[in-house]
Design brief:
Blueprint (H helix, E strand, L loop, with lengths): L1 E5 L8 E9 L15 H4 L5 H6 L3 H9 L8 E5 L6 E10 L6 H17 L4 E5 L8 H15 L18 E5 L7 H22 L7 H15 L2 E5 L1 H6 L3 H7 L9 E7 L8 E12 L8 H4 L7 H16 L4 E11 L11 E3 L5 E3 L7 H16 L3 E6 L3 H7 L3 E6 L2 H14 L2 E4 L17 E2 L7 H13 L4 E6 L5 E2 L9 E2 L4 H8 L3
Length: 510
């Protein structure tokens, strides 16, 4: 699908579908049951020229169908050759005073979905007119929404693999502003999200740790960032005992890989940020085996690493003046004769000993060694780790909100604010030191889990031990929003690529 920004009268654009967003308060309610109406008073702002070209039919249909611009409303009208476009689509945007970038992102996504149903090849979408969103930000959001809504994962389908109909998607803006940069940025970010979605959607037999590392190398070569892969021997040399313990049952068939990703700007970097992603390509639970239902979706347990790789690809293409280093801890938590046991004591890279009281709390072990590696190798200003870490975060926040843990109030607020702008929901949970007692062990420096109460918090407190004040830090538990079991406005069912857009927004703010 080719994206392009166009100016001029949208009603004059030749297209299969002309899409317009309507705010709920864009026009006073029309009187129904009569064709004798006052067209200028009942046609939403910006649609008068279209209504005039259609001989007043648009206004009549709006009145007859009770279209008010409420979110979720839609109206399709055939133009019968009275316009250059074959059909007009109106989409409700809700209240104008609540509009934001995600309102426009959703509008574009809904337009793509409707256009596909209508088999439209060329679409012109009029960027909604709101003073609450800067034009370049609106164009970027619309381009993102269109690209993300057009995503499909069809690699393993042998039927129903029809080619998407849309070939050209025009973004109509009210002027001749230069917005090509916004479209290019959106294309880079959407490609990063789609890369993450692809990885999450892959079955575990196809996306082993070795294959994940290979995909990272391919992404680095294409986007222009450096990739270094540590195999099991290199991981052993780094004394990453926690990573090796988790991987033991899966070796030699699916050995672990720790992948280092490096982006460096051409000039002097303003700061250095490290991103660390949990990359459990499959999680059986180990000897503390999961029930069958709990194991069914465990291919998504590498969503944190997928988000880091997707964000790194986008960052390398956008080229901010910030140094960014990513680490992917790619491991399979299997079952076998070499599996680590409950009650084992394992020495981490940092030197802390960990008593294992649940082999299904393996993600924090992998993250702990990768966090220590990142901090000692890079000494960053900021480190953010991302993981589908706990079911407890989902119990607390539901399936669409990620938990944020940090001691930095400003960082927490930035993640939430940028996330909202990107259409990704985050909520801060406390790093309650009163729960540290749950992690005390009489025979090791710490245990890897506490009780069920406050499980997301104790997981974050465990990771905090390995950060140990060496950098500003945030932990993001995205167990809920990493995947979706239903379609959204620009999100198909399956892997979401959650957090890619927020990470890019944090590293390179608009």
């Amino acid at each position: 699908m080719k994206l392009a920004a166009v100016s001029g009268a949208p009603e004059a654009r030749a297209a299969d579908l002309l899409a317009c967003g309507v705010f709920v308060d864009a026009t006073p309610p029309a009187k129904t049951g009569t064709r004798a109406r006052k067209a200028p008073a009942t046609v939403p702002h910006g649609l008068q020229a279209i209504d005039a070209a259609l001989g007043g039919v648009l206004g009549d249909t709006i009145a007859a169908e009770g279209f008010t611009g409420a979110a979720g409303q839609s109206l399709v009208l055939h133009t019968h050759s009275k316009l250059a476009a074959g059909r007009v689509l109106l989409l409700g945007l809700g209240a104008a005073d609540k509009a934001g970038p995600d309102t426009i992102r959703r509008f574009a996504g809904q337009t793509v979905k409707m256009a596909e149903k209508l088999k439209a090849k060329k679409v012109t979408a009029v960027i909604p007119d709101t003073d609450r969103v800067r034009l370049d930000v609106a164009v970027e959001a619309a381009a993102e929404g269109a690209l993300l809504a057009s995503y499909r994962f069809t690699k393993y389908l042998t039927k129903d693999t029809s080619t998407p109909s849309i070939q050209v998607f025009e973004l109509a803006i009210g002027g001749r502003a230069k917005v090509e940069g916004a479209i290019a940025r959106a294309e880079a970010i959407a490609a990063g999200v789609c890369l993450a979605r692809d990885l999450v959607n892959e079955p575990p037999a196809s996306l082993t740790p070795v294959e994940f590392a290979r995909r990272a190398q391919a992404a680095g070569k294409a986007a222009g960032f450096k990739v270094t892969v540590l195999d099991e021997k290199a991981i052993a040399r780094e004394k990453m005992g926690l990573v090796l313990a988790v991987a033991a049952a899966a070796m030699p068939y699916t050995p672990p890989r720790v992948v280092r990703l490096e982006y460096r700007p051409k000039g002097k970097a303003k700061k250095h940020i490290c991103l660390v992603g949990k990359g459990l390509t499959f999680d059986s639970g180990g000897l503390d085996i999961k029930p069958a239902d709990g194991m069914l979706d465990m291919k998504i347990d590498m969503s944190g690493a997928a988000a880091v790789l997707g964000a790194m690809q986008a960052i390398a293409r956008i080229k901010p003046d910030v140094a960014v280093t990513g680490y992917l801890g790619c491991v399979e938590n299997g079952i076998g004769g070499n599996a680590f046991h409950p009650s084992d004591i394992i020495t981490s890279r940092k030197g802390l000993t960990v008593e294992i009281n649940n082999t299904d709390a393996e993600g924090r072990l992998v993250l702990a060694d990768c966090i220590d590696l990142a901090l000692t190798q890079n000494k960053p200003d900021l480190l953010i780790d991302l993981a589908t870490l706990t079911g407890a975060s989902m119990i607390a926040l539901g399936p669409t909100t990620a938990a944020v843990f940090t001691d930095d109030d400003t960082l927490a607020a930035d993640i939430q604010t940028i996330g909202k702008r990107c259409g990704e929901d985050f909520w801060r949970l406390p790093l309650n030191d009163d729960l540290l007692g749950q992690l005390k062990s009489p025979i090791a420096d710490t245990k890897n889990t506490g009780t069920r109460m406050g499980g997301a918090i104790t997981a974050a407190l465990f990771l905090k031990m390995f950060v140990d004040g060496r950098a500003n830090w945030a932990h993001i538990d995205l167990a809920g929003p990493a995947s979706s079991d239903k379609d959204g406005d620009y999100q198909p069912r399956g892997g979401t690529g959650f957090a890619v857009r927020t990470l890019v927004g944090l590293i390179d703010p608009r």
